Amino acid sequence: MRRPPLLHVPFWLTYLFLYAPIAVLAFMSLNAGESPYTFEGFSLKWYGELAGNDKIQEGLVNTLVVALGTTVLATVLGTLLAVGMARYTRSRVLDAIGLLPAILPDLVLAIGLLVLYSAVNMTLGLHSVLLAHVVFAMAFVAAVVRTRLTHADTSLEEASRDLGANALTTFVRITLPQLAPGIAAGALLAFTLSVDEFVIAFFTAAPTEPTLPVVIYSMVRFGVTPEINALATLLLAVSFTVVIAAQRMTRLTESLS
Amino acid sequence: MSTTSTPPDRDRAAEPSAPPSGGRRGRRGRGAGRFLAGLLFLGPGLTYLIVLLMIPLALVFSYTVFQRGRFGGVVYEATGENFTRLLDPLYLDVLLSSLKLAAIATAVALLVGYPTAYMIAMLPRRWKTIALVAVVLPFWTNFLVRIYAWIVLLSGPGLVNTALIDLGLIDEPLELLYNEGTIVVGLVYSYLPLMVLPLYAAIEKLDPTLREASANLGARPARTFLSVTLPLTVPAVLTGCLFVFVPSFGNFIVPELLGGGHSAMVGNLIRDQFLTARDWPFGATLALALVAMLVVLLLAQAWTARRYSRA
Fold it and tell me: How does it sit in the membrane (chain B) (predicted)?
């Protein structure tokens, strides 16, 4: 197929648009000077400053606790849901409910959970953020695993059942090993989604136990500092690594389109 | 016919590969077993979603008919006041301006995203994957960080202003942040990947012989694009537009950080009602208005897509 030469311009402009701000941010994080804007030579000192910032450290620990819990719960629930939806029902209503958390604006989910927590008088804390994150992370895990399921060979499962294995044995011995890469990719996604999630955490975290994005938000509102540049760069690097790893495990882009 | 209740029967009917008259355990046992297994797989996730998704939504939407308490909280006395308040010009303006900003962002994303998706679909196989991953990658990074990057670029002493002054194009730094244009840039930047993905998938699937036929019959590339390629990708265009519009419409971070902090969009308004004004019933009503608009758009998209796939 012919590539129209004129298309090269918007094509490269898109990538410039997507990556220039990130590149500038990463570059400025290496600034030796005090100003977040004028570059005065290379240094890693702002990364060192991060290590001494208690608020950031606390936020990081909170975020990791929430993200690990979310990953475990969302992976288990999402995988079961995906298998159930692909093999045991053809209900379009269930499909819609499973996808809803991914389509619903995060703000609406956030206020919904805040209302629920206050209706049952639950005190906010890391557990309330965790429970909330599982809702949407589960939907993403289920979507990734389902894509993998539709590509999986069903004749193996049928053979297992015809040979007398029950549903559980078939699931554990046949389905699960086939799904492993999809589940691993789903787990990685659940982890990054939770680490980066801000809106729901903003509504459902206790003020005394903010997650890292909530800490960043309160810092960003007061302006640009080289310290935030360094922190932002680190977060970008982590997300990039995790997503590329997930991409290599499964054809992530396929399941999203 | 077995005497089991409806769900296992339906399940069995939905499984085309099930043997016609039962395996070793006979029809009924297998149907009940399948039902139990289905329950085992679907039960935990669905219970979770009912308790932490459906019930919260039902609660929020039921609050729309109640009144706020004097010190926050909700007084369970029915009222239609929240809905009449929506029509107050003060709030109606915010709703309309969110609609406008989200629509502009969607249009810009389409104009930028379509040629990019087209170009990616034309790339050789190896580069295709790399180009696609490169588009999606920023989407999976921290949202706040990506918005923050634009503050670094655009603020008064930021890089863009410095560069323009150094080039002698301007004398004073321009006010690049805190206007509606910056909000649109932020929204496009945040959700462009969601436009490119469905467009790419559709363009990639197009049968190249259709375009060749059009060219062989004498159509210029522009004509071929308008009469062949574009009509065939309309459902994907709508999907992409929906994917960009929905999160843009409900966004409150971009207007706050790039738009200057006042209630520019409905998301900010909802946030304020819940966290500062503590008028939950009215906040819930705003959220209902937001969801209602999105549902209308979803239905319109599904309807158009079905019409196109039938034609």
Answer: Multi-pass membrane protein
